[in-house]
Write the structure tokens for this entry.
Amino acid sequence: MRSALAATVVAAGLAIAPGAVAAPDLSGVSGPRPLETVDLAGTWDFAPENGAATTIQVPGGGWYKQGFDVPEATYSRQIVVPQGAAGNVVRLELGAVNHQATVFVDGRELGTQTTSYTGQMWDLTGHVTPGDTHQLRIHVKGRQGLVTGLGKDTPILPGYIGPTYLVPTGVEWSESTAQGIFGWARLTVHPAIFIDDAFVRTSVQRDELAVDVWLRNGGSSAETVELQGALGGGDLAYPALPARTVTLAAGETRTVTVGPVRWGLGRESYWWPNVPYRKGYRAQLHELELRAGEAAHRVRFGFREFRQAGTRYELNGVRVNHRGDSLGGAGYDRIDHGGKGDAFHTFPGFLPPTEATGGWPQAVDNYQRLNMNVVRIHQIPASPYMLDVADEMGLMIVGETGIRGSQSRQAFDEAPENFVEHTKDLVVRDRNHASVVRWSQANEPDLYSGDSLEFERELYDTIRDHDGTRPISIDVSSEPYDELPDEDFASYQHYFDENGMIAPGYTDDVHPRDDRPFGRGEFIWPLSSTPQGFTWFATATQKMREKDASDIRPYAVISAWPAVVPGVRRTDLITEELTVPLYGEDNLPDPWSNPQIQRIQAGFHPTLVADSAYWERHKRSDPLGRWPTPTQPTTARAGRRVDRELVIFNDTFAGEDVDVRWQLRRGSPTGAVLEEGGFRVAVALGSRARRTITFTAPATPGERVHLVLSTFKDGRERFRDGEQWFLVTP
């Protein structure tokens, strides 16, 4: 089905790369429908601390991107309030603010809000007059203005110098993270009774849907309205939603639950990821239109249920294993694109397609073509647009807060309210996105001495209070947080092996457990920008898959191939490990012919068939990243029978039958067929099976023979690999 959003984009005349589609910003997909909107983007007056008054672009990626490296500054401009605001609610909406904003209208202070990468909403009703011009002033403190502890010049850990912050900064190692106002800025006018928020909760197990609606009366007297809702978005017989009559006192906000109602539309109506990869795939999405008097509110959602069940995850009742990447926006912030910073809102590779670039839809397609089914948005939250596209294209997302213990430079213990509030803001902003299947509440918090079980429990409870429909996890250095025994919570360790030793190089340990999902949240770094380390993305993942890991995320694609996001040259950025990446569009114009990328496609493939001992022998590759390692070939005795054990994976969402075919070919993957065979095996969804094949090596020593392995489902070849070769010996 072609989505309404795709039609909207085409109608607007936006160029779309082949196989890609662009959704508009989240404000065009979900949220209240204002009666009027005034865009405040443009030139504002700007007064940096201890600097000369000047001007700045808002949003413009914030102040660091525009050349201001200051701890705090003041934005100001005149605003004209629409005449239609009479008797209605007027709000100031800021797309994202790092970090603390105090708002003044005509010199009168309205209050202070503290945020990290999420929006701020200010009610201007009663402070402005419809049709009049007012002076708006916003004083913002960035991370350098919210410093505590040891101060700016004190070493916190060996190799790091810098302040300790009172807010979740995302990362501390990057100088380029956005500061000030970014995202967008606008005035909106809403009816006195308006729908402030809505959360669609779906359950495949119970086959039902319920909607939580936040109704607000911004007027001066009590009002009664009828809340109505209608489902649509596809050619389906959607269930009707019951109407609710609600009376609200002046200034009151009330949560009203509509339903649950029986869904009854079956598997084809569910949201499914693009697995196995199909070019041009579009996931099934639906729309909810809510009305209350003059107020209108729209939500786009997917009917799906992602749950934690013992040691595994399930999507719509089917076991799902996460295989993917941790996308760190901070690295891309270091690209100088009209200044450094705020890549998610300003770099073309994260934006809608144009004639020059496939934009973020092409990046999602690249991830999926690598056979990665999940991306953890690491430490810097995604833009709403990025999540819109993931919803449409079927890429699973782990939404992570900006809370980070690494380098011990976020003061959880001194200002816990800022970290908890950030967690709530992120969850509330993103919980209607079908692609967000799990929350990551923090990254390596155990590396900060001020971390505590009580703090982590508060983060967990905050997420649960605002979204009880998704599992929650934490990525840690070594502390597994076993004291949080909740059945929807899991902990993923990073660079420590099973003996508690730091393992920054190759590892295929998965920290197995019998009570929670297990795997590896980060591994390989800081060697991920080396040729050998890049090959380990494939080989370590394959070995971890054999060990039944539910989540595998080598760290990180940006270090080796940042051009997974289009438009990036290897010389455009310095990685987190202070190196230049391996590949970019300048030295790898055809990535899909690169043998390392092809090996990653194989290692992550949902229906991979692999010679288990062969992958084990060559899993460490060589310093040049070659697989198999040519200096230590696997051998076969001339004229002898050879037994090889194959492991067959089925990480798809339908059909347990997998057909396996093998061929022994002389000299190359396309050489003469010497011997062949095949079999059908039933492989449970999300699992693997083993079978042994036997062939006879050629009688002539010195020959090279290739074992070509293929899998088929529903009569179609899904996977093919001919790079496993044997040297025939006497």
Summary: The CA atoms of residues 264 and 446 lie 45 Å apart. The longest strand covers residues 89-105.
